[in-house]
Amino acid sequence: MGRSIVIIGGGIIGASTAYYLSALAQDVQVHIVESVSIAAASSGKAGGFLALDWHGSKTKPLAALSFKLHQELADAHDGTKQWGYRRTNTFQLDIEEKRRNKSVPGAEWLNSISKVSKLGDEQTTAQAHPFYLTQTLAKVAQSRGVQIHLGASASKINFAPGSDKVPAELVATKSDGSEIVIPATDVVFAAGPWTGVLARKLLGEKDAGAAGTIEPSEPSSSIILRPDPSHPVTSHMLFTGLTFSGRSREPEVYPRLDGTVYLCGAGGEDESIPLPERADQLKPVPAAIQRLKEAAAFISPETFGDAQVVAEQCCFRPNSQTGLPVIGKVREGIWMASGHGVWGIQNGPGTGKCLAELILGLPTSADISQLSP
């Protein structure tokens, strides 16, 4: 049997890995096994902010590669139209309730703030709509022969005869209880916040290695608003510090090319919500959603006061013990890419390319040696 690589997870990491595997090798079979749908969890609900130089020394090479790949992918697949890719200017805004005497040049909707400073320009920051980016990567991979199994939950790994370590097949269970058996010389754990629980289930507690240590973050709520067209919004990415009603909040505000505005970072998200079994069971935290709506109305009452609420959503991010992504070989035939925290979309393409190169025995396009399992 030739190589058959099964990727568990249909988010940005899984889709990117399949995309680059299918680009780099035509003589391997590639499968994505996804329990719900492509980009059903955080890859569909993230903000999509991209930054070249906001990273520590260990992730800097990966981030630089990935930022470059975002541009290359947009050039290759009409990213501006397909997933709202664009270079952006990025600012830090401070707004205090009793001191709103400044404005942001070139942004009339930000005409009542306290302080502004620039964090990035079109050379160093950009954005993408992560749901459509992930969907496009998966579709292109599928057009190259990658098989995508949706509504299929990885339930068992059958190991090679005479070995309890080297995989031979992956069994996935459909929602109706039926099973599909996929040849698997290699299994990739790229299931975001579910990586740890799946690795422990399929490999066993003591054999899951670094994959078993990935844990979900606290829930992160977000809203998407559509302001009235009479209140045009510029492409400024905003990190804010707000002081109002005796409280401090730091929401992030990302206007998108489609005319909507994404807000996250409600603060105070200490509601203890366990990670659900499936991405389609995620529900937003009502108190966090309300805080975001209040913050939006405070930032720009004219723009957001009567804006249409397009979406209220919630997601969990994958966290590692080191706070860094973990990418590479766990053991023979077992691979992982997870633990990206808030930088999953930014570092997704670079992760997918480097992991594909590792699996195929090629030199990696970035030095990720300090991110190994």
UniProtKB/TrEMBL annotation:
Coiled-coil intervals, chain numbering: none
Pfam families: DAO
A GO term from the CC aspect: late endosome
Superkingdom of this protein's organism: Eukaryota
Gene3D superfamilies: D-Amino Acid Oxidase, subunit A, domain 2, FAD/NAD(P)-binding domain
One GO BP: retrograde transport, endosome to Golgi
InterPro entries reported in the protein's UniProt record: FAD-dep_OxRdtase, FAD/NAD-bd_sf
FAD dependent oxidoreductase domain boundaries: 5-358
Signal peptide residues on this chain, from the entry's feature table: none
Name under which the protein is recorded: FAD dependent oxidoreductase domain-containing protein
Origin species: Rhizoctonia solani
Taxonomic lineage: Eukaryota, Fungi, Dikarya, Basidiomycota, Agaricomycotina
